Amino acid sequence: DADVTQTPRNRITKTGKRIMLECSQTKGHDRMYWYRQDPGLGLRLIYYSFDVKDINKGEISDGYSVSRQAQAKFSLSLESAIPNQTALYFCATSAVLAGGPTDNEQFFGPGTRLTVL
Amino acid sequence: QKEVEQDPGPLSVPEGAIVSLNCTYSNSAFQYFMWYRQYSRKGPELLMYTYSSGNKEDGRFTAQVDKSSKYISLFIRDSQPSDSATYLCAMKEGGSYIPTFGRGTSLIVHP
After folding, report:
1. For residue B38, which of B71, B16, B8, B13 has the smallest C-alpha distance?
2. What is the mean pLDDT of residues A3-27?
């Protein structure tokens, strides 16, 4: 079973629509992240959360919002989708470890391919 | 200029070749250096992890960090078609929990 799941896996929507992407994890990690990946631009951080009551903006948060419903669930919303938000979206998690060799390794979900027409 | 520069490729090599993937960076505070591998239609997975300068070897893979030149490399020996993927470098400052990713290099190993 996948440790980090994302729904939906693919979504086509129209300009102006509100859309929510959901992420769930069974790894027991406190930290969760949302990234978008565009060809030639790599991974860019949208939002991150270090626990249920902590939400932080990343480098490209405009046009997005998030909700951390529980330790295991972190949702990303596009309030009014626009075509340049067409991208591959990844959720990731990481644990709080004390000086381990892979401290803060990020574990990624399979991605959601979003197309905004 | 981005903090982390990585040539997107694609890099196409024959099976059995030695592959060299590289990243340069500008932030001298980076202390942790990672390589992630991303297969098509999958999320990235951590492949190698290095702290500070030096080399680290894991099977056919060797990660190398030269902090004086702000340059990191990933070498793949005896490359296989199953190594075909996008390789992303990532770097992190000491005490930070958020890595900075390179754009990724697409590698194609043909039989």
Report:
1. B8
2. 96
Euclidean distance between CA atoms B79 and B84, whole angstroms: 9
Neighbouring C-beta atoms of residue B44, cutoff 10 Å: 27
Tell me which chain A residues have a C-beta less than 8 angstroms from the C-beta of B45: 108
Q: Which is higher by pLDDT, B51 or B33?
A: B33
Size of interface A-B (CB pairs under 8 A): 47
Q: Give yes or no for a contact between B88 and B100, defined as CB atoms under 8 angstroms apart.
A: no
Please give the pLDDT value at position A100. Answer: 53
Contact state of B44 with A90 under an 8 Å Cβ cutoff: yes
User: Is any Cβ of chain A less than 8 angstroms from the Cβ of B97?
Assistant: yes
Cα nearest neighbour of B92 on chain A: A104
User: What pLDDT score does B45 carry?
Assistant: 95
Q: What mean pLDDT, rounded, does chain B reach?
A: 93
Greater pLDDT, A2 or A41: A41
CB spacing of B43 vs A45 below 8 angstroms = no
Q: Residue B42: its chain A contacts at CB < 8 A?
A: 110-111
How far, in Å, CA of B55 to CA of A17, rounded?
Answer: 49
